[in-house]
Amino acid sequence: MKIKQAKFLKSAPALCDCVESQLSEFALIGRSNVGKSSFINTISNNNKLAKTSNKPGKTKLINLYEFNNNFIIADLPGYGFANVSYNVQNIWEKNLSQYLLKRENLKLLIQFIDSRHTIQKNDKIMNNWIEYNNLKSIIILTKIDLISKNDIMKKVKYFEKEFEKKVFLFSNKFKKYNDIILLELDKYIVE
Ligand SMILES: Nc1nc2c(ncn2[C@@H]2O[C@H](COP(=O)(O)OP(=O)(O)O)[C@@H](O)[C@H]2O)c(=O)[nH]1
Ligand SMILES: [Mg+2]
């Protein structure tokens, strides 16, 4: 699959604010700063499409983007930010779990994991929650350019063992990882 067109659709605080759509939807989840917004920009070849930031926890909205007039990617607020109050965190979790469980056109969750670290507690909690709710998901290891070539295979093995499934690789610095991910997403698009 080639990305020929990409556009911003809407920012939504909660499920009820998302535009209704028949298009297949993918949701990006992962800790703040893991590279979710960068993924959108990299596959669309447009660094201005999604806001990226090195300050964690900026986005609290579900940002929807449409590709090729054919599918939607929802860039979700990152989990695990440190400096928000417990109350804000609760509202955020409620809004987000409602979206993940009830969004009708949602076909697949894409969980982003920073390849530089070992498995983080909130990544594991999120992954368990996904499995518990029987949601389809794939895992993408990000920032592959920041680990040595030698470590890439070690990390793949480590995370595949931890999550008991295949993991995909990604870097916003190299285009070579795009195709295999887009090929995988293509399998979940319902025309
Ligand atoms: N070296 C490197 N930096 C990245 C990569 N992806 C994202 N970043 C940087 O990490 C920071 C957070 O990225 P962002 O896409 O905003 O993360 P998000 O919070 O998950 O949406 C930004 O400064 C990005 O430039 C990557 O693959 N390699
Ligand atoms: Mg972001």
In short:
The chain is an alpha/beta fold.
- Uncertain runs: none
CATH uppermost class: Alpha Beta
Strand composition percent: 15-25%
CA-based gyration radius:
16 Å
As for the CATH topology, it is Rossmann fold
Question: What would CATH call the architecture?
Answer: 3-Layer(aba) Sandwich
The averaged pLDDT comes out at 90
Structural domain count: 1
Strands ordered across the widest β-sheet: 1-3-4-2-5-6-7
Shape: globular
What is the count of DSSP helices, taking H or I runs of 4+ residues?
5
Distance between the termini: 14 Å
Largest sheet: 7 strands, mixed
Q: Share of helix among residues? A: 25-40%
Question: Superfamily at the CATH H level?
Answer: P-loop containing nucleotide triphosphate hydrolases
Order of helices and strands: EEHEEHEHEHEH
User: How many beta-strand elements?
Assistant: 7
Q: Find the structural class using helix and strand composition.
A: alpha/beta
Which small molecules are bound?
guanosine-5'-diphosphate, magnesium ion
